[in-house]
Amino acid sequence: MSLLFYLGLVVSIITTSSFIFAILGFLIYFSLPLLDSGNFLQFFTLSWDATRGLYGLLPMIVGTIYISLLATVLAALSSFSMAALIAYFLPRKYAHKLERILTSLFGVPTVLYAFAALFLLVPLMNDYLSGRGLSLATASFVLSFVVMPTMAMILLNAMRTIPKSQIRALYFIGASTDDVFFKLVMPQIKKGIISALIFGFSRAVGDTLISLMLAGNTLQIPHHLLDSARTLTAHIALINASDYESIAFKAIFLCGLLLFLFTACIMMVLKLINVRKK
After folding, report:
1. Residues 6+ apart with CB under 8 A from 175
2. Nearest Cα to Cα of residue 213 among 226, 231, 225, 240
3. How far apart are CA 41 and CA 251, in angstroms?
4. Any idea what the Cα angle at residue 14 is, between residues 10 and 18, rounded to 5°?
5. Model-level pTM?
6. Which of 87, 80, 231, 100 has the alpha carbon at shortest distance from 147?
7. Residues 6 or more apart from 153 whose CB is under 8 A from it?
8. Tell me: the pLDDT tens digits for 128-170?
9. Residues facing 55 on adjacent strands
């Protein structure tokens, strides 16, 4: 039985690793003509206009970073509050209910958040912000609800790693819940907080639908929260796939390769944090 178990593990690892390397090879293979064209740097300029032969991806790279960063910051506030309430501040029966609600949020499709915002939030913002409802701020705000459950669960698990004996010892000498949380828990979950931020940012970078439906998709570098923007994932979804030989079509593989490398870097940072933690 144990032999079958370990065999299954080995097969699973080999299959998963092969799949990841196959995706990387696929992206490199189709990006290679652009990388080897001698005009590689043109893809890191400010202008994208396929009719004029301009293929700058910088607006999409900056748009991805801005929307993901803002969504992560907003999600950090709500997820930290929710994790702290569940772990330490709410009575057990209410904490259990709140945790069940938090867990159920993982099953909500991203498109539902986007549709709800498109028909409820965007018209409201259009009325009050002179028609600037589809913007970096709207996309980041809604995206934070998608990122929040992941960050909250990481923080909750980190908070629960504190030994019960230490908590009971503090309560025994008369410490309040605030004392326990801020003087005992907070100093010991710094790496958990960093992991939550990195995972949240990675989750935000990979989202497509919310940025596609709510960010406005303008090919420009946003300078204001109410400016519209386009992310790399939205750009991949918007490129017309009818002309397979066009540079515009091949550029979406370069976008995919950038996203892959970006995610790989984030995972490496997480790995380093875990190694240092041990």
Report:
1. 183
2. 231
3. 12
4. 175
5. 0.84
6. 80
7. 83, 102, 103
8. 877 778 889 999 999 999 999 999 999 999 999 888 888 888 8
9. 48
